[in-house]
Design brief:
Among the domains are: 69 residues, 3-Layer(aba) Sandwich (MutS, DNA mismatch repair protein, domain I); 58 residues, 5' to 3' exonuclease, C-terminal subdomain (DNA polymerase, domain 1, Orthogonal Bundle); 147 residues, Dna Ligase, domain 1 (2-Layer Sandwich), CATH 3.30.1490. Helix 4 packs antiparallel against helix 6, helix 11 crosses helix 12 and helix 13 runs antiparallel to helix 14. It contains 15 helices and twelve strands. By secondary structure, it is of the alpha+beta class. It has a five-stranded mixed β-sheet with strand order 5-6-1-7-8. Strands 9-12-10-11 form a four-stranded antiparallel β-sheet, with helices on one face. The structure holds thymidine-5'-triphosphate and magnesium ion. Thymidine-5'-triphosphate (TTP) binds next to strand 1, helix 1 and strand 3.
Length: 401
Amino acid sequence: MHVDMDAFFASVEELANPSLRGKALIVSGPGERSIITTASYPARKHGIKTGMTVRQAKTLWRDIVVVHSDHRKYTDASKKVMTVLESITPDIDITSIDEAFLDVTPFLRDGETPRILGMEVKKRVREDTGLTCSVGIAQNRLLAKLASDMNKPDGLTILEPGKIKALLEQTPVGKICGIGPVTTKALNEMGLKTCGQLGRYPADLLKRRFGSYGARLSEMGRGEDVHHEDYGSETNSSVKSIGHSVTLSKDLSDRQSMGKILQTLSEMVGRRARRHHCGGKTLTLTWRYDDFSTRTRSTTLSAPICRTEEIYRYSIWLLKKIEIARPVRLLGISLSHLCFEAQTASLLPEEIRKEEVQKTLDGINDRFGEFTLAYAETVPDLRTQKVIPPSWRPKGIKNSV
Ligand code: TTP
Ligand code: MG
């Protein structure tokens, strides 16, 4: 079973302020250039969706109501939702702030039909949180997720095994979780528009074109999900990267101003890595131009890093190497190739001193709040723009692939 909350941030805002209920509503950061994290269903009727800027939304619907994100509210609501789901089964895998997979096989063995079970889950979520969700039930995760999206909002969709083949014939490849816009475009150019076509296409040709992902694509086309048999709880080893990005309040072209942003992002990424006792061997700098084209540049180091000062130093190094072809509207840093518990104490006096400085800074910020003590270059107001990635987990860190 896949459970996904409907227009989650917007619904939480409506719950907190009932006068917003039923309105065309968007949730975003402050300012016209901010990106919309979600739009209520009435707003979606006007073509407004996640990823647009507030300004674009206003051109589509002048009377759109804009609410500024309040992440505390969403994490609190998320915890309530997950508590309800955990009361249904401990076999749960929370995959983002508003969605989870539940292995409900044992209930079905006891004779409860999927529809009764789905209705019961929806009822309990609504009673305990005041929010609606959409539920999909199928024989594996891939299909359950496809199902939960089919009748949003407040939907309940059950995919019976006998009907899946026909459904996949009609399903565009981009509807499958794990096939993003770039792959969708590439597949479409190969003449593969539906899952049915993708599933029938020779797997070795897909492998030649997409590498090991090609084999996975072939399975996806057939609605198979052999990789997700295990619904066990999250382990740190499943975490692939730790990153933060920020949409800038105005486009930047000079490296010095960008450096200040990177200082702030280095602290945010480093803090998260240190909290989870890990470091990353690969550092990636992401930048997005004003035409929304996005670039990345990475460097892989001989040992994992997690101190703010190190992350900053290498991101500045990358920044110096890149060509800035147009004004930049978004900057991001991420650490990948994560090593857990890998930090061995350094023997170099200078390194020991830096580690002590870092521990002291962290200690103060743990006690008095983030950025209480920060490097002088840090831009403090950036923190308010922080967006919770969809891959957020209440008990863990971002699992981005
Ligand atoms: P989603 O479940 O993707 O979207 P949603 O719940 O708003 O709408 P739907 O009914 O279609 O499920 O994401 C959950 C929340 O995560 C969403 O309310 C806002 C946040 N979010 C971001 O912050 N950034 C993003 O890019 C996306 C997609 C979501
Ligand atoms: Mg949702």
